[in-house]
Specification:
The chain has a single domain, classed as 3-Layer(aba) Sandwich (Rossmann fold), CATH 3.40.50. By secondary structure, the chain is an alpha/beta fold. Strand 5, helix 4 and strand 6 form a beta-alpha-beta unit. The mean pLDDT is 93. The chain is built from six helices and ten strands; from the N terminus they run βαββαβαβαβαβαβββ. Helices cover 29% and strands 27% of the residues. The longest helix is centred in the middle third of the chain and has 17 residues. The strands form two sheets. Strands 1, 2, 3, 4, 5 and 6 form a six-stranded mixed beta sheet that branches. It has a four-stranded antiparallel beta sheet with strand order 8-7-10-9, with helices on one face.
Length: 228
């Protein structure tokens, strides 16, 4: 029997590739996406992506999207209350699993597992344990297209902001930077690939530094008629 599953959607490449992997699993009924967004800025937390682009992504992959609004600033307790309410709502609609695009950080996985403990919803990690160098190469070779929306300038030079996540980007990463950015070195926005029915058209706007991070603003551009 297929397990009704929601995918945690950050708007980035790992979420998009997790979607691609889940769609190939005959035991998964992928029912939708969910994403936490900042109430004040109306953007994805950390990635800095506009809600309008999130909605275009969801439409382009053909799945419903649940937006979970969190305050700014957001305490751990406030975040937990909002997420607990969403978990109860999802379980009430028959959801049996939440999928996450995490790769290898054990503390993050434990946090996910503890947050869902006793809820009736099982956490699943379709990309877990894959070597990130191999995964990055597989994603790029597999046609995933993404752009860097946020980076930590203490770890990665700001010239990488707004860059395409491609073979050239990977080749230029300094030693010690995870090729998937799993330590928070950078975040991305996926706009095309095998998980999309059509590309999401964006342009790179202003790059700014805020709260210790560098953000490249992505601007929606007119979408093409139906089809690629």
């Amino acid at each position: 029997m297929r397990r009704k599953t929601l995918l945690s959607w950050s708007s980035g490449k790992d979420s998009a590739w997790a979607l691609h992997v889940l769609r190939q699993d005959p035991n998964v009924e992928l029912a939708g996406l969910f994403c936490t967004v900042n109430q004040v800025f109306e953007r994805v937390a950390m990635h800095g992506v506009r809600i309008e682009l999130l909605r275009q992504q969801a439409a382009a992959v053909g799945l419903p999207l649940s937006l979970i609004e969190i305050p700014y600033p957001c305490s751990n307790d406030a975040y937990a209350r909002v997420m607990d309410a969403f978990v109860r709502e999802a379980r009430g609609h028959g959801v049996e699993a939440f999928a996450f695009g995490d790769l290898f950080l054990e503390d993050v996985r434990r946090y996910r597992e503890q947050g869902l403990e006793g809820s009736g919803i099982t956490p699943v990690f379709p990309l877990w344990g894959l070597p990130t160098g191999d995964l990055a190469a597989t994603m790029v070779a597999g046609g995933l297209k993404a752009v860097i929306t946020c980076l930590d300038p203490a770890r990665l030079d700001r010239r990488f902001a707004g860059r395409a996540y491609d073979a050239s980007f990977l080749a230029e990463l300094p030693e010690g930077i995870d090729p998937c950015g799993e330590f928070g070195e950078f975040h991305s926005f996926a706009f095309d690939g095998p998980m999309f029915e059509r590309p999401v058209r964006v342009s790179v706007g202003e790059t700014v530094e805020r709260d210790g991070f560098v953000f490249s603003d992505l601007l929606p551009t007119p979408q093409a008629p139906h089809g690629r």
